Amino acid sequence: MLALIIFIVTLVLVIWQPKGLGIGWSALGGALVALAFGVVQLSDVGVVWDIVWDATFTFVALIIISLILDKAGFFGWAALHVARLGNGQGRLLFPMIVILGAFISAFFANDGAALLLTPIVIAILLRLKFSPPSALAFIIATGFIADTASLPLVTSNLVNIVSANYFDIGFGRYAAVMVPVNIVSVIATLAVLWVVYARQIPTHYSIANLSAPVSAIEDPLVFKAAFPLLALLLVAYFATESLGIPISLVTGAAALVLMAIAGRWWQGGRDAVVSVSDVVRNAPWQIVLFSVGMYLVVYGLGNAGLTAYGAQILNWLGQQGNIIATVGTGFLSAIVASIMNNMPSTLVGALAIDSAQVPAATRELMIYANVIGNDLGPKFTPIGSLATLLWLHVLAEKDYKISWGQYMKIGLLITPPVLLATLLALVFWLPMLPNQ
Description:
By secondary structure, this protein is mainly alpha-helical. It has 17 helices and no strands. It is found in: Cell membrane. The chain crosses the membrane at residues 32-52, 59-80, 92-123, 135-154, 174-197, 221-239, 245-266, 287-311, 323-340, 410-430. It is a multi-pass membrane protein. It comes from Psychrobacter coccoides.
């Protein structure tokens, strides 16, 4: 009961953020209380740090890369290209925006997609003079695809990194399993969004008010470096997998290279367009404290019996066949994530799967189902993921207010069919691959 109270209070403070209290300080405070009352031990700190450090610093490096590219105009250029390629046809523009969001989510993580693409899409919608209902359809699509398309790579979501590291899944193996599954998720998301919002999508729009894509480029040098750097980074992920090099080290090296280019370090910062110091200052350093603190609080819940209870449920699911085991694990993870946020939910699921007594093939399905549930399931509620909270914050700053009730109505309508389709794709696809 004490562990549960500490968790609930910590989660409330993380979501509420009274007087601008950072999420990291709230989580760290909860961890210190848990330590003080013996819910977790000092030895648990090392265990949790070993689980989260690589994922956390990878995420920070990815956001630094994303912020630099955003300041250089990379995402604005891409969005203007898409708007022009839509050729004035609203029903072509809608899927193209969704696909753009899927690519950004895959390569720059779901938080990057929610944080960076949303304001750009809003700016374009204003230029195109879309009506409020039409604009809402595109905004909802942008927010939802950020999470539902965050499955394909280990680096596409913090959840993926934590899970891959915990279960020692290599970058290549993870991609082999999840890239096809992610394609199904994107198609299902687009199909459901289309059914819900097709009537709001304008048939035609004028591109006369759109600027040329090249006008969005603020730093040509960074822009030119972006594509080869991202290609090299992707190759490096696969190439360094067998060497045991942490993903955070590879991503951090790419971030440093981009920082050097943006800051013109070789010429003492002269002619620099992007302020690297501002980017580093605005990087999500609070996520480091949040990861350690929140995971310690959740680890205390596991010590108090949550892990054992979760393992019992998974054992029962494992006896019902692979389809029920996979779908059940995915929806269970989604429900837990929508209540307690997907970051702590990921660890809860991983600990429970690790303790469950199920066949190896079923266990692997459960591992990936837990990832899918924690990537997609948070869309049930506004508190399910940091990406959703970021997205809502960005919308509020742009005077697009979506209440929690309105959001949940949309989330409960869109998420279940997409989640089900994605989990069924996993059940079909994973057994076709050779054993790890």
